[in-house]
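Note to self: keep these together.
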Amino acid sequence: MTTLDTVVVGAGHAGLAVSRLLTDAGRDHVVLDRGRVGERWRTERWDSLHLLTPAWMTRLPGGGYTGPDPDGYLSSGQFVGLLERYASSFGAPVVSGATVLSVTAGDSTARRYRIVTTAGTWHARHVVVATGPHGTPNVPEGVAGAEVLTSHRYRNPDRLAPGGVLVVGASASGLQIADELNRSGRDVTLAVGRHTRVPRRYRGMDLFWWLDVTGRLARTVDEVPDPAAARRETSLQLVGRNDPDRAAPDLDLAGLHARGVRLTGRLASVTGGRARFGSELTATVAAADRAMDRLLDSFDRFVERTGLAGEVWSQPRPRPVEVPAGPAELDLRAEGIGTVLLATGYRPDHSWLRLPVLDADGSIRQRRGATPAEGLYVVGQRFQHRRDSGYIDGARHDARAVVEHLHAGSSRHRPSVAEPAA
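Structure:
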């Protein structure tokens, strides 16, 4: 049994950002991870994956990307290497192979938590949960009797069962996987639910440049009318490709459909070898196009307001996606579909956190990273405080807020257990 000031759970970018700031503040701590530094990026990503954000947006406290191509997109392997170098740069006290089994309230007199892991037990006054927004893959209700693979288990087309593939989900992961499978010669059907369509580049600049300079990434949860809805926003329909001319066509539903990918509405159920789909495909696609146009309108207004018209291109808008209604039902065997691949996101899983801080959906109640339990913090959640909180680049802001609060030792602004998250 080891007693120390702080235990950080998770050795990804968020946990390491906290560790760097704790080190700078002279706080005794340890970083626990079930695997190695960046474990999810090593074992739960497909082989060809690159970050959606350009390399210049890989900024961490006291470190980050310093390579020759800040506008490129790091592969998952390159990002793991960056995290390893970052951890080594300040001697991050990472304990690998330490799966956390439970976090409970310990000695109330000493105000310490008890953290039980497969590698031993720690007692600490502070615990920072930095396991990220990815918990357990979200498997839609009604999916039964089919060979199902979730996106975090997908590696490449060659490792799938023979036959066609039904990909479920049209956000970043689903779109990229459907594209890769189609290019490999597979027959692909893509079930399309709610999604966020955006261009990779607009008027000559990367989408994230626009989101950054217009202040959208810095927008806080206090500035949105519905924080819960904001945290449920779908991921951007993007791909990070290192094309030399930076002018490759956008990866979108129209392009996939033109290359032979069959589009359907939202998957309703898979039973008895038959997949059934909703009838809202046309409306869903049209809603995504309208939302994209509103976003691009805001960029154009920013250009006019700031006098940048002579600095950026005059570029036509992406054309609206026109798709047929799609089938209402498919017989998987008759269609030769051997795999149903789910790219439907994740749901929170903090079952090991045995403290009264979880909402009904399993998410951690918090404000600026401070939970209702004194000394328990969280970093790296979607829209934790800023819109970019769930991105690699944004975790640094929440990490700093948490470490400053922890270091000050103040609980004056801690919400009560019953107070909803903000």
